[in-house]
Design brief:
Blueprint lengths: L2 H34 L10 E7 L1 H10 L1 H6 L2 E7 L5 H8 L4 E6 H11 L3 E9 L3 E4 L13 E5 L2 H13 L4 E2 L12 E3 L5 E5 L13 E4 L1 H6 L9 E2 L5 H5 L2 E6 L6 H10 L2 H11 L4 E2 L7
Parallel strand pairs: 1-2, 1-3, 6-9, 6-10
Antiparallel strand pairs: 3-12, 4-12, 4-13, 5-10, 5-11, 7-8
Length: 292
């Protein structure tokens, strides 16, 4: 091949290579620009946020905000628990970033008993306790010696006793506090027996007792809607002001950007609508109404 032809062929080859390289650079630039608009952990990956929750309604509510958080670059992973102890233990030990299942009085009692330092961030909803029929279906004719199941943890038992008082079943020594126990019952005209059980197990024992006070999440999980309750906590009750369910984190993580985005998502109009559409009064949104 003549030298002139060789030079022309070489120039054409370099021009072609430059064109291909230029196209590749354009594609990569476009790709990098798109990636840069999505919040990540700085390495191009979504930030993983593990949150422990009771299955109903907490995990359901969290799953409802997954798309919101995904747009914020957060991969929300919901870890379900069936009791009230393991989610705090897992959070304290570091296998969770947050949990969502409890109210502040329960959290304070847990911290006190376990020497942990877990703190609430935002209030999301209130689950009215309901007094549900078991072997007896009316409060107008309470059997003498009737058995009434209540949650056996300190805060929810006090709350259950307040509900029984408001229903006219018993009277308490200090009716305007949340510290009462069954030893503080001052009037019991029907000689009812307070049966303390693990909160999660109470729906399974309805056939064994005359009545049962059931936490809202466990009632919903068991297919019991609040309209089936013989009595329930009102939206303006001491309980509603005290027992809002909150997001909980380890102290010092309150200002974590991922936690703040979770908090905002859980107090969004999307969540308010989800709660109202799915739980029909068995779960009540409280954002802005109750502060942890």
């Amino acid at each position: 091949m003549p030298r002139t032809s060789i030079l022309r062929w070489t120039a054409a080859l370099f021009a072609s290579a430059a064109l291909v390289a230029g196209c590749g650079a354009a594609e990569n630039t476009a790709g990098n620009t798109a990636a840069s608009t999505a919040p990540t952990d700085g390495a191009g990956k979504a930030t993983v946020l593990k949150v422990g929750a009771s299955p109903v309604p907490h995990a359901e509510i969290l799953n409802a905000v997954k798309p919101i958080l995904a747009k914020e670059g957060i991969d929300l992973q919901v870890v379900e628990f069936q009791d009230y102890v393991q989610p705090n233990r897992a959070l304290a030990e570091g296998s969770l970033d947050a949990n969502f299942f409890q109210h502040v009085p329960y959290l304070e009692e847990y911290n006190k008993q376990n020497h942990t330092d877990l703190v609430p961030t935002v209030s999301v909803h209130f689950e009215p306790l309901g007094l549900y029929p078991g072997r007896s279906d009316s409060l107008a004719h309470i059997p003498d010696g009737a058995k009434i199941a209540v949650p056996n943890d300190t805060t929810n038992e006090a709350r259950a006793l307040l509900l029984l008082q408001s229903a006219g079943v018993i009277q308490l020594k200090q009716p305007l506090t949340i510290d009462e126990t069954k030893q503080d019952i001052t009037a019991n005209p029907h000689h009812v027996q307070i049966v303390e059980l693990d909160a999660a197990s109470i729906p399974r024992h309805l056939k064994d007792v005359d009545y049962a006070v059931i936490n809202g999440n466990y009632a919903v999980q068991a297919g019991l809607t609040i309209d089936k309750a013989l009595a329930k906590e009102s939206a303006d009750s001491l309980a509603a002001k005290t027992y809002a369910n909150v997001v909980v984190v380890r102290k010092g993580d309150e200002n974590n950007p991922a936690i703040q985005k979770l908090d905002a998502a859980l107090q969004s109009d999307t969540v308010r609508q989800f709660i109202e559409d799915h739980y029909h009064g068995s779960v009540v949104p409280v954002f802005g109404a109750v502060k942890p």
